[in-house]
Design goal:
Layout lengths: L1 E4 L1 H8 L7 H8 L4 E5 H13 L8 H10 L3 E3 L3 H6 L15 H13 L2 E4 L12 E3 L1
Parallel strand pairs: 1-2, 1-4, 2-3, 4-5
Helix pairs in contact: 3-4
């Protein structure tokens, strides 16, 4: 299975957070799975660190370094990912979702045939089979 980690899941994974349950840890550590972090997450970490450094535990360079050390594979941003944004479907009465980082990460997963691992309840309102809520 190919897994794309939402930014907060990547942060939890590289910091060995207790927020990741045993089942998720097994998925991330299973050598049969390819686990990816996205350049979208690097961009998100950089912006959020600049705006609210007290809320972002590391800068983008440290984030990339720790992702690489953890053996996560890097996913760049392609035009096909951006074009897939218009294909995302959301439940009709779902609350508005303002996060452009999440939408692009979801579009990347959909475009590449990955499973998008997230804990964000607003992502669950997308009618996309690639979403993996944890």
């Amino acid at each position: 299975m190919r897994l794309l980690l939402d930014t907060h899941i990547a942060l939890w994974a590289i910091s060995d957070s207790k927020r990741l349950n045993e089942a998720v840890r097994e998925l991330l550590e299973n050598e049969a799975n390819a686990v990816y972090y996205s350049m979208v997450s690097v961009w998100e970490v950089a912006i959020k660190r600049k705006i609210h450094p007290e809320q972002m535990p590391m800068d983008e360079e440290v984030f990339v370094s720790l992702c690489e050390e953890a053996g996560l594979e890097k996913l760049g941003i392609r035009l096909s990912h951006i074009f897939t944004l218009k294909e995302l479907t959301r439940q009709e009465n779902a609350p508005h979702h303002n996060d452009p980082f999440d939408r692009l990460l979801l579009a990347q997963a959909k475009s590449e045939g990955f499973r998008f691992m997230t804990h964000d309840s607003l992502i669950a309102d997308y009618d996309e089979p690639c979403v993996m809520m944890i």
